[in-house]
Predict the structure.
Amino acid sequence: MDFRLRGAEAGDVPDILRLVKDLAKYEDMEKEVKLTEKELLEDGFGDTPFYRCIIAEIKGETSSDGPSHAPTEATGAKGAPVVGFAMYYFTYDPWVGKQLYLEEFYVMEQYRGLGVGSQLLRHLSELAISTRCSGMMFVVAESNAPSISFYKRRGAEDLSQEEGWRLFRFDKASLARMAAPAEE
């Protein structure tokens, strides 16, 4: 199987959302996906993009080329079946400088083990180096043992064990409470 990587385009938004939902289903968190295509389009391809995305697609085929494609595959903006993606953005750490933050990384199950994920990760690594990033950060669900193994085989450090960092989040309601004027 031959595949290629390319930067996502606005026409890829339906595939990006499909893959986000596939990943959420894989992690038993499908009901947690609230994002719409409209929001993905505005947030990634509007005047101020909040994320960037790399698409992995089957080279030289269309999604109607035959039975080898699962029914959940869709044709991307370039007309080929989209089978994986990496969503990322850049952050800044005042201790070490620029970092590439890998927000989502997913390859459809039937395409795993064929080098798609490794190529996506290689592409992101080259991008991080060429933009003078000091590293790449990401979060993996504790229950996702295959992904943890995938990253560790490539040299990733588990900071939750190595350095004792904890991940926190303020949800929308918490943000609204903190943003509200203080009562006197």
Helices lie at 13-26, 37-45, 116-130, 145-153, 159-162, 172-179.
